[in-house]
Write a structure and sequence with these properties.
The protein has about 350 residues and is an alpha/beta fold. It has a domain at about 5-170 and about 205-230: 3-Layer(aba) Sandwich (Rossmann fold). About 40% of the residues lie in helices and about 20% in strands. The protein contains twelve helices and 16 strands. The chain has helices at about 20-30, 45-50, 70-75, 90-95, 95-115, 135-160, 180-190, 210-220, 235-250, 270-275, 320-330, 335-340; strands at about 10-15, 35-40, 60, 80-85, 120-130, 165-170, 170-175, 195, 200-205, 225-230, 235, 255, 270, 280, 285, 310-315. The chain has a nine-stranded mixed sheet with strand order 3-2-1-4-5-6-10-15-14, with helices on both faces. A three-stranded mixed sheet has the order 7-9-11. The chain has a two-stranded parallel ribbon with strand order 8-12. β5, α6 and β6 (about 165-170) form a beta-alpha-beta unit. α1 packs across α8 (about 210-220) and α7 (about 180-190) crosses α9. The radius of gyration is 20 Å and the shape is globular. The two termini are about 35 Å apart. The model has no long low-confidence stretch (mean pLDDT about 95).
Length: about 350
């Protein structure tokens, strides 16, 4: 993608020391940008990132998106915002749902509000498949986060503000921190039994590069309030475990430990209701914002009948075989880094 609009522009990545943040940072540094601010509350991860990426265009802010003043100071004279800061671990959010609400809902609201006030041109908010038909605190908080972003985007349209607010939804991102693949690889290397929650559990499979490309697609082509979803293959997590055992030529035993708090058997990237209005754009689905106002009588169309469509789920998308999973894993640069460390 040719992003000449990036030249001499300033960016901030909230949650910038996470897996997505670091990948996006490295991507943005390929352009002739003015500045990138990495905003997070983890000073150790910031120090690690500072040591690994030596570029005078990168600056760091210690802060918390729950603190509106901290956010306000950080977005001054910023052109573009990527909001990736979140509590993401499903079991942790189940035990501490109020903390998930404070970060994922109120924190994101702070980012949006303060960015709009400071005249930011675009905000891309990162969401998750768990926001669709949510059954856990993490998914519920992310679903509410999406609603706040869409409501604010609708307000931008009505009041003719210049700020655009976009949303991207992800499935499981391979080799992101705290995800399944790094855990299983560590268990294999330590000759431990592999722990699988449920052999029939399926998940979407996305790479870190995919996550950046999805944000870039939304950034380039999205309208206010649009949700972007990448079409992604899925597979059973038991097949991921078996694929890794083949790759490493190991025979570790697999223990089935049962689902953790708040886990689904299958995930959804797009609900049945959303599929009825989604646009199919090659590698992606785009769900346009519903920009009607609350006076529904003005929008009534008695002849319009909505066709029911099947939800886009991890067990109904393209299913990867074990050989296909092996090929996909080996293609990832993060996996090659792990092999080189052996």
């Amino acid at each position: 993608m040719n992003f000449k609009t990036f030249e001499k522009k300033s960016f901030i990545i909230f949650g910038g020391t996470g897996s997505f943040g670091e990948k996006m940072l490295r991507h943005l540094l390929k352009f002739k940008i003015k500045e990138i601010i990495i905003f997070s509350r983890d000073e150790k991860k910031q120090e690690n990132l500072r040591r690994s990426i030596k570029d005078q265009r990168v600056n760091y802010i210690i802060g918390d998106i729950r603190d509106k003043e901290s956010v306000n100071r950080s977005v001054q004279k910023i052109d573009y915002v990527f909001q990736a800061a979140a509590l993401k671990q499903v079991p942790s959010c189940e035990f501490f749902p109020l903390e998930a609400y404070k970060t994922n809902v109120l924190g994101t609201s702070n980012v949006i509000e303060e960015s709009v006030k400071s005249g930011v041109k675009k905000i891309v908010v990162l969401s998750t498949d768990k926001a669709v038909y949510p059954i856990n605190a993490m998914g519920i908080s992310k679903a509410m986060m999406e609603k706040i972003a869409i409501a604010k985007a609708r307000e931008m349209q009505i009041k003719k503000f210049k700020t655009k607010i976009l949303i991207t939804r992800y499935g499981n991102v391979m080799f992101s921190r705290g995800s399944l693949l790094p855990l299983l690889i560590k268990q294999i290397k330590n000759n431990h039994n592999l722990t699988i929650t449920d052999p029939e559990m399926t998940r979407f499979m996305m790479s870190l590069d995919d996550s950046v490309n999805l944000v870039m697609e939304a950034f380039k082509n999205g309208n206010n309030g649009d949700i972007y979803i990448q079409k992604s293959p899925g597979c059973r997590i038991i097949d991921i475990a078996n694929a890794l055992l083949i790759i490493f030529k190991k025979k570790n035993k697999i223990d089935i430990i049962g689902s953790r708090h708040g886990e689904k058997i299958n995930e959804y990237l797009c609900s049945s209701e959303e599929m009825t209005k989604s646009l199919d754009i090659k590698k992606y689905y785009k769900i346009p914002a519903d920009n009607r106002n609350i006076n529904y009588d003005l929008h009534a169309n008695k002849n319009k009948i909505t066709k029911q469509l099947e939800a886009y789920s991890s067990n109904k998308t393209q299913q990867l075989s074990i050989n296909e999973i092996i090929k996909l894993i080996k293609q990832q640069s993060e996996f090659r880094v792990i092999l080189n460390k052996q």
